[in-house]
Design brief:
10 helices; UDP N-Acetylglucosamine Acyltransferase, domain 1; Spore Coat Polysaccharide Biosynthesis Protein SpsA, Chain A; alpha/beta; about 425 residues
């Protein structure tokens, strides 16, 4: 029988480490690179790999994600493609929400059209990378694996944030360690010369370990049998419990990959896109990143001085200075403002003529950034209203600082979605 590959994208939990960006949306719906959402990455990787029958499992703050997917990923009837959104639901078998990644798949097994001979490709919805999934599937089949885990070499100093594995010379996994902290245990997990020689540009002075990327290929029968057991999370419970019972293999991926798990990671992943040659390439015509068509006009720059910046469609920027910025769709930035290391997510709509002609209210400035503002090391979420003469910087603010629409996380100021910062405010 013909073997099917069924991609399943995890819609994410509460996203507490990305708060307040996840205050009103789930992690995969967080805007990325001016025009995209995080979920566009795994969806585009699936489509570019030839897999167009995709499931997304969602639970928290899903309205924005659902709307984006429905408006972005529409397939013609002849290709038989779909993106099926499956939210947590009450059934006769139970009524609780997803308790983890494995539990989310368990609760939806009846909705998948796969059999024991088919393959399930489990993906995260909040990572930035480009991968041809056909390669990991071919590897899974060639070595006769029951479960294959995508693994990336990570410097040993950073592995305390990852699930780490040890593999033998054939690629078979012989040991797991979840977020190891003990130095001797980490040293034991450092890869040998054979694996190191397969890395593109290893630092000769550093040791590396294989970290799980949270990307799995399961044979259908093994997945169903594994989910009959009580584990709720793939990385922490289900896969370690299979060690020694089924054929577990690691597929080594040595290219750019970023887990967008924290505000700092999100901030740096966006701003690195302004580099002359960024590690992630949105300009790959053979493997495009797909998103919602908005039919916006080209951006208008009236005397703008921009260096190392990305400016999305539909913006109007007047006599402003931009240094290492990512400016999202429909952004308005007014005269005399200077932005450095700033992500502006833009707006969901334009002002109406009535709004623009109404008298200016210092407590309700127009959407966008006003005149003569100074903003650095900040994320301005969608539909925010920044008045004139505003200064925004994390300098002197403790991590965790919160006041109204202002938050400080990982040394970065976040102005929340639809936040209002009146004229002359100094942050």
């Amino acid at each position: 029988m013909k073997q099917k590959v069924l991609p399943i994208i995890m819609g994410g939990g509460r996203g507490t480490r990305l708060y307040p960006l996840t205050k009103s949306r789930c992690k995969p719906a967080v805007p990325l690179a001016g025009e995209y959402r995080l979920v566009d990455i795994p969806l585009s990787n699936c489509i570019n790999s030839g897999y167009n029958q995709i499931y997304i499992l969602t639970q928290f703050n899903t309205a924005s994600l659902h709307r984006h997917i429905q408006e972005s990923f529409k397939f013609d009837p002849f290709g038989r493609g779909f993106v099926d959104i499956l939210s947590a639901e009450q059934t006769e078998r139970g009524g609780h929400w997803y308790q983890g990644t494995a539990d989310a798949v368990r609760q939806n097994l009846q909705h998948f059209s796969g059999g024991d001979h088919d393959l399930y490709l489990i993906l995260s919805g909040d990572q930035l990378y480009r991968m041809d999934f056909r390669e990991i599937v071919d590897y899974h089949c060639s070595v006769g694996a029951d479960v294959t885990i995508a693994a990336k070499p990570v410097p040993k100093e950073e592995v305390s944030e990852f699930g780490v594995m040890n593999v033998d010379e054939t690629g078979k996994i012989s040991e797991f360690a979840e977020k190891p902290k003990d130095a001797s245990q980490i040293e034991h997990l450092v890869i040998g010369d054979a694996l190191r020689s397969r890395m593109a540009h290893p630092d000769p002075g550093r040791g590396y370990c294989l970290a799980s990327m949270g990307i799995y290929v399961f044979s259908g029968r093994v997945l169903r049998e594994a989910l009959e057991e009580p584990g709720t999370d793939f990385g922490k419970e289900v896969i370690p419990s299979l060690l020694g019972k089924v054929r577990l293999f690691a597929y080594v991926f040595d290219d750019y990959w970023e887990d967008i798990g924290t505000i700092r990671a999100f901030f740096e992943a966006n701003l690195m896109l302004t580099d002359s040659v960024p590690p992630f390439n949105f300009f790959d015509r053979h493997n495009p990143i797909f998103t919602r068509p908005r039919y916006l006009p080209a951006s208008k720059l009236n005397g703008c001085n921009a260096k190392r910046s990305i400016i999305a469609d539909g913006c109007i920027i007047s006599d402003a200075i931009l240094r290492r910025c990512v400016i999202g769709v429909r952004s308005f930035i007014n005269e005399g403002s200077r932005l450095e290391n700033v992500i502006v997510m833009g707006a969901d709509r334009y002002h109406t003529l009535e709004e623009l002609s109404a008298p200016h209210n210092a407590n309700m400035p127009p959407m966008g950034i006003g005149r003569n503002c100074r903003i650095s090391n900040a994320i301005i979420d969608k539909n925010a209203r920044i008045g004139d003469n505003v200064v925004i910087s994390p300098e002197g603010k403790p991590d965790g600082y919160e006041k109204g629409d202002i938050h400080v996380r990982d040394g970065i100021v976040i102005i929340t979605k639809s936040g209002i910062i009146p004229d002359n405010t100094v942050i």
